[in-house]
Amino acid sequence: MKFLFLFSILILCASGCNNPSEERQNNSIQTTNKYLSFEGKDDQFTGGIKMIPIETPKGTFNVWTKRVGNNPKIKVLLLHGGPGMTHEIYESFDGYFPEESIEYYYYDQLGSYYSDQPDDLSLWDTARFVEEVEQVRLALGLDKDNFYLFGQSWGGILAMEYALKYQEHLKGLIISNMVPSIPDYMEYSDTVLAPKMDPEVLKEIMVYENAEDYQNERYLELVVNNYYTEHIIRMPVDEWPNSIQRGFNHLNPKVYVTMQGPSEFGVKGDAILKNWDVKDRLHTIVVPTLSIGATYDTMDPKQMEWLANEVQNGRFLLCPNGSHLSQYDDQKNFFNGLIKFIKDVDMGEFNP
């Protein structure tokens, strides 16, 4: 009888005590369910997609955004490059941000594939894009307690310009693969990157450059296979992720050429961004800032490190195996460093 009594007590204790492993698993499931939940969200019907009206000097247009996840303390808005590229180049973020419970927003800027594409070239202006980002921020309810702005390439230019005007709304700033000076980028391309190319290939490219024959298929073939695969995404073209292929297919050439110029080998002609430079203003940025550079990037990684030291609270992340799209060709280093920055700022543990 005593044995049966003790056995029944053990059974009761076992049923009344939580198994630590099961408890952790249940908490994880609850956290995941909450992160993925659309309960109480006004974008449930569209699966997180919002078309946001943007006021411009030329009228009202709509831009496309899509929310992934729920985290009231961490909300990351992704600014794509190009200009005129799309959010699709960031689809790799799906492989890393959700497991860290980071809420993030895909966003096609005005003129890009999923958003309205007006024909008025005067809209493709950096200052106007800054005001667009501010309107998107307000529409999404992002503020200084949760708003992280990520910008890569042209998106990095836009992120810097936004921070220089509206940093009081930011919790963290990430500038990825973009130096603070187009003239310096051009000098690096001409004096460091170009000489590394096969001399015969470079000579042939320059024939097309000098003739301004930028749409020639041979020119594009040379640039993509000898420059892009070394400095944009370090993979053979036939191995490029589908998201990158779609992004290039959907690029709006009117936005791209107006701001970047017609050349695939730098900023040329009368492009809007040709003389862009904010080096002398970076010291006014006080918000925690991450500068991401890569060894094989089109942007000088040393200048990306300088940028991190020039802002008042900066950190530098080098992707040693990466190029311009390090989220693909140096993925582990890229996301480990990016997520650590976001978590450090969120926990109040950020230090340069």
TrEMBL record:
Coiled coil: none annotated. One of its GO terms (cellular component) is membrane. The active site is at residues 153, 297, 324. Residues 76-330 form the AB hydrolase-1 domain. This is Proline iminopeptidase. GO terms for molecular function: peptidase activity. Belongs to the peptidase S33 family. GO terms for biological process: proteolysis. The keyword Hydrolase applies. The lineage of its organism: Bacteria, Pseudomonadati, Bacteroidota, Flavobacteriia, Flavobacteriales. Keywords: Hydrolase.
